[in-house]
TrEMBL record:
One of its GO terms (molecular function) is nucleotidyltransferase activity. Keywords: Nucleotidyltransferase, Transferase. This is D-glycero-alpha-D-manno-heptose 1-phosphate guanylyltransferase. Residues 248-334 form the Mannose-1-phosphate guanyltransferase C-terminal domain. The keyword Lipid metabolism does not apply. InterPro entries: GMPPB_C (IPR056729), Mannose-1P_guanyltransferase (IPR050486), NTP_transferase_dom (IPR005835), Nucleotide-diphossugar_trans (IPR029044). Belongs to the transferase hexapeptide repeat family. Signal peptide: none annotated. It is an enzyme of class 2 (transferase). Residues 6-233 form the Nucleotidyl transferase domain.
């Protein structure tokens, strides 16, 4: 797609994912063995887009340190850093000077999706739209703002979350703009595309088109979604060309040691240099590099941070364990706990509170 460039908005602080995002931006968190952003970039490359601008802010240097100029990915990457938070619309306007193609495909950097990006671009061109939105149908649209369209697919309005939504179509966080439309977004101040840009375009009579599908889609903004999205990538439910190994029940990265009688399944990822002891059970979880799960311990639907230790017989369910934290022997953690980095919990405790 020679007439299309991509923008990926990766400036958010990822506060809902703390403590994981204290040391890395959300799009750089290890997800199925590589930074989450690598999966999105692989989809952009497969769609035939070669030039990508990353709109960065929080821990901005980490993106270029890892991806460089993008040549290793077959991409041409450019970085633009916000000096203050500008929102989605403001972030798009902030990178405008680096854009030259006729059409600009824009992505929120925290969405895992499987939609056909070429089809989205084709809808945009064939409808001659000013802006095209990827809309996905979901079973529970009450949790999202919804976007009704007419029989031709043209967007009618943008609605906030409601208990009685008129449609199951939601904004999926991928858009195509005609390049000149981006210049109409106010410059130098925070702007929300959902609350300001798109409603203003509709009010002015602009053509805003919807591309609707039922492809895989998940917002990776919470620990639960991060864990389940990573498992979907490992199991091949969510598509990606960036996986460092074959899909299956588990992804064991280089240098990891797993006891022969340990159980590792459910789309779990075991990071580089991680160790899993005899009789341990790891289900649907993410173990970052250097994590240790000792003999007989159980980890389910959880994240174990880099260098963290789960001692013998401990049980960790639906919990985020920060980097280098230590979960004492036979300690039990569950119900959406967050254990902060470098915390040590004594043995035989039972924890239900949300933060430690």
């Amino acid at each position: 797609m020679q007439d299309v460039e991509a923008v990926v908005l990766v400036g958010g602080k990822g506060t809902r994912l703390r403590p994981l995002t204290l040391s890395a931006p959300k799009p750089m968190l290890p997800t199925a063995g590589v930074p989450f952003l690598a999966h999105l970039l692989s989809r952009i490359r497969e769609a035939g887009i070669r030039r990508v601008v990353l709109g960065t802010s929080y821990l901005a240097e980490t993106f270029e340190e890892h991806f460089g100029d993008g040549s290793a990915l077959g991409l041409d990457l450019t970085y633009v850093t916000e000096t203050e938070p500008l929102g989605t619309g403001g972030g798009i306007r902030n990178v405008a000077a680096k854009l030259s193609a006729e059409h600009i495909m824009i992505f929120n950097g925290d969405v895992l999706a499987g939609t056909d990006l070429r089809a989205v671009a084709d809808t945009h061109r064939s409808s001659r739209a000013d802006v095209t939105l990827h809309l996905v149908r979901v079973q529970n649209p009450r949790a999202f703002g919804c976007v009704p369209t007419d029989e031709s697919g043209r967007v009618q309005k943008f609605l906030e979350k409601t208990e009685d939504p008129p449609t199951d179509q939601i904004n999926a966080g991928c858009y195509v703009f005609r390049r000149e439309v981006i210049d109409t977004i106010p410059e130098g101040r925070p702007v929300s595309v959902e609350r300001e840009t798109f409603p203003d375009l509709l009010a002015s009579g602009a053509h805003v088109q919807g591309h609707v599908d039922v492809a895989y889609w998940r917002d990776m903004g919470t620990p639960g979604d991060l864990v389940h999205g990573s498992a979907d990538l490992v199991r091949g439910v969510a598509p990606s060309a960036a996986l460092p190994g074959p899909t299956g029940e588990a992804m064991i990265l280089d240098g990891a040691e797993v006891a022969s009688d340990a159980l590792v399944f459910g789309g779990s990822t075991v990071g580089r240099g991680a160790r899993i002891g005899s009789g341990a059970k790891i289900e649907g979880s993410m173990l970052f590099d250097g994590a240790v799960v000792a003999a007989g311990a159980v980890v389910e639907n959880s994240v174990i941070g880099a260098g963290a230790v789960v001692e013998e017989g401990a049980s960790v369910r639906d919990t985020v364990v920060g980097d280098r934290a230590v979960i004492g022997a036979h300690c039990e953690l569950r119900h959406n706990l967050r254990i902060w980095p470098d915390v040590t919990l004594p043995p035989h405790g039972i924890r239900f509170s949300p933060d430690v």
